[in-house]
């Protein structure tokens, strides 16, 4: 498995095949997708978020704190510390750019996302995170 890391506060140039991701001091941000393009993610600002285009599962009921003016259940998110959550947001993390090869992981600010043929797995510094695939999602 290939593993790459970006650290906040360090100027870094990361190359993954055709992916070239420059970051500057204090501005760690990385957007990427699965090779299939069904899952798009980013890691930035101490959190990881992955959205999914096509899925066979339904999210849990919309929480009271999630405005009906936004989308709910299109993805999952986890911070550097703490438990993952279902996304409630009016934007998207979907991208087909910068595909992360299956079996390759990317770490930014203590959060690691691993691209697998079965989906995306993101884990934080506490060992909490999520697995996201067309068939299901799972928190751990």
Write the layout of secondary structure elements.
Layout: E1 2-6, E2 12-16, E3 19-23, E4 29-33, E5 39-44, E6 47-52, E7 71-79, E8 85-89, E9 104-108, E10 111-116, E11 119-123, E12 129-132, E13 137-139
Parallel strand pairs: 1-9
Antiparallel strand pairs: 2-3, 4-5, 5-6, 6-7, 7-8, 9-10, 10-11, 11-12, 12-13
InterPro entries: DUF6636 (IPR046576)
Pfam families: DUF6636
Q: Estimate the helix proportion, in percent.
A: under 10%
Could you describe the largest sheet, including whether it forms a barrel?
6 strands, mixed
- Quick check: average pLDDT? 85
Beta-strand proportion: over 45%
Q: DSSP helix count?
A: 0
Derived from helix and strand composition plus strand pairing, the structural class reads: mainly beta
pLDDT below 50 for ≥5 consecutive residues: which ranges?
1-25
Query: What does the radius of gyration come to?
Result: 14 Å
What is the total tally of β strands?
A: 13
H-E order: EEEEEEEEEEEEE
Distance between the termini: 22 Å
* Strand order across the largest sheet: 1-9-10-11-12-13
The coarse overall form would be globular
Number of folding domains? 1
């Amino acid at each position: 498995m290939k593993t790459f890391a970006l650290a906040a506060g360090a100027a870094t140039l990361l190359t993954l095949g055709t992916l070239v991701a420059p970051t500057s001091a204090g501005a760690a941000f990385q957007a990427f997708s699965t090779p299939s393009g069904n899952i798009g993610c980013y890691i930035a600002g101490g959190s990881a978020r992955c959205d999914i285009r096509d899925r066979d599962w339904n999210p849990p009921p919309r929480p009271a704190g999630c405005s009906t003016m936004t989308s709910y259940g299109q993805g999952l998110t986890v911070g550097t510390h703490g438990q993952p959550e279902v996304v409630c947001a009016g934007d998207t993390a979907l991208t087909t750019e910068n595909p992360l090869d299956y079996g390759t992981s990317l770490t930014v600010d203590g959060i690691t996302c691993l691209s697998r043929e079965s989906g995306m797995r993101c884990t934080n510094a506490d060992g909490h995170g999520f697995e996201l695939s067309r068939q299901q999602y799972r928190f751990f």
